[in-house]
Design a protein that fits this description.
Helices cover 53% and strands 8% of the residues. It contains ten helices and eight strands. It has helices at 4-9, 84-92, 99-121, 126-145, 179-199, 206-225, 245-269, 274-295, 306-333, 337-347, and strands spanning 13-15, 18-21, 29-30, 33-37, 48-50, 60-62, 155-158, 173-176. The strands form three sheets. The protein has a four-stranded antiparallel sheet with strand order 1-2-4-3. Helix 4 (126-145) packs antiparallel against helix 5, helix 6 packs antiparallel against helix 7 and helix 7 packs antiparallel against helix 8. The longest helix is centred in the last third of the chain and has 28 residues, at 306-333.
């Protein structure tokens, strides 16, 4: 039987013939958890002690914990739309179209074309994010200046979580002339690009972690603000499922949980006190629990990739165990051995 000191080096979650090890960074890692078959785990890397072998007394070494997989939200797909001709027609119905008008419309068209090209080519950079934000701002200004409801611009957007193509007969998409729908779709993509930028950061550096937290927090806030207008008539198409309030709530919660996860990882890398790590881990656990519940709602659970459920549930279990592990270390320092043992049992 392992001593309490070895328990403090690591903790285990037993499930069948596997040992689920929540230490992050091992080569046997599974998103959120490590799945290690008994007596097969090995590593020659230096770092913190890892007692993953449930049936032996061997102590293995692994790297200091590094970030687990962060989920990126896919983007909504759209096609080219001619903005210049119909808007020019609306303007000309009330006054003469000026050179400044034409220049502004050309810039607006270029911004949308750049956004469409970036989506098609999967260019997820901060420059792409800025272009999408500029386009969103421009169409916001536009709706204040012209009666956009009188235009006949058909905006067609696919569901972000659809795995088909434009040609398939049953591809979920919505075509609408409502500018509010175009704005909602662009806003969704701004949040999605933010997650792509955040996940691409170097999480081994402080600057990379700060940027990742900022991007995921930004995405969480935007998803919580995404809303679409109801159909104006029975014949008008409903918004795609990814824009539903339930979907937006789940995505916002997921992004917030991942931002908190990076904050926790930073605290662990900085060797913060166990009480602080336990508090941060508890918050991460709560956020992943909320995310899992929101993702399981009947109206949206068919949207997500099946691996998302495993990742989210696995991380929730991991951080729940991490709370107990670090609280056990606090108890050890305070010499409350009974609580220490009880928490280590819960960590299992």
């Amino acid at each position: 039987m392992r001593s309490l000191d070895k328990w403090q080096d690591h903790f285990l979650i037993k499930q069948g013939v596997f040992v689920l090890c929540p230490v992050i960074g091992c080569k046997y890692s599974y998103p959120g958890l490590l799945l290690v078959r008994t007596n097969t785990h090995s590593s020659s890397q230096s770092g913190i002690s890892c007692c993953c072998l449930a049936e032996t007394k061997t102590t293995r070494k692994i790297n200091f914990p590094t970030m687990t997989e962060l989920l990126c939200i896919p983007l909504k797909q759209t096609g080219e739309v001619d903005l210049v001709k119909p808007i020019k027609s609306i303007i000309s119905s009330s006054r003469s179209v000026t050179t400044a008008d034409l220049n502004s419309l050309t810039e607006l068209q270029n911004l949308r074309s750049k956004m469409v090209a970036a989506i098609k080519n999967q260019q997820f950079t901060e420059a792409t994010l800025e272009d999408a934000q500029n386009y969103f701002d421009q169409i916001g200004h536009l709706e204040l200046k012209i009666p956009f409801n009188n235009t006949k611009i058909y905006f067609k957007w696919l569901d972000a979580f659809d795995r088909g193509s434009w040609f398939g007969g049953s591809i979920p998409y919505t075509m609408s002339t409502n500018l509010l729908y175009e704005k909602a779709c662009v806003l969704f993509n701004i949040a999605s690009i933010s997650t792509q930028v955040g996940a691409a950061q170097d999480l081994a550096t402080e600057d990379g972690m700060k940027k990742a937290v900022k991007m995921f927090q930004l995405a969480a806030g935007i998803f919580s603000a995404v809303s679409t207008p109801p159909p104006a008539s029975p014949s008008e198409q409903k918004p795609t499922p990814d824009l539903s309030p339930e979907s937006a709530a789940a995505l916002s919660s997921l992004c917030l949980a991942q931002a908190q996860e990076v904050v926790l990882q930073k605290a662990m890398m900085d060797n913060k006190k166990d009480a602080i790590i336990a508090k941060l881990a508890r918050h991460t656990d709560i956020l992943y629990t909320e995310t899992a519940n929101l993702m399981q709602k009947e109206t949206v659970k068919g949207l997500w990739d099946k691996t998302w459920f495993s990742i989210v549930n696995g991380k929730q279990a991991m951080y729940s165990g991490l709370v107990q592990f670090h609280q056990a270390r606090v108890c050890k320092a305070e010499k409350t051995i009974g609580q220490e043992i009880a928490r280590l049992q819960l960590a299992r």
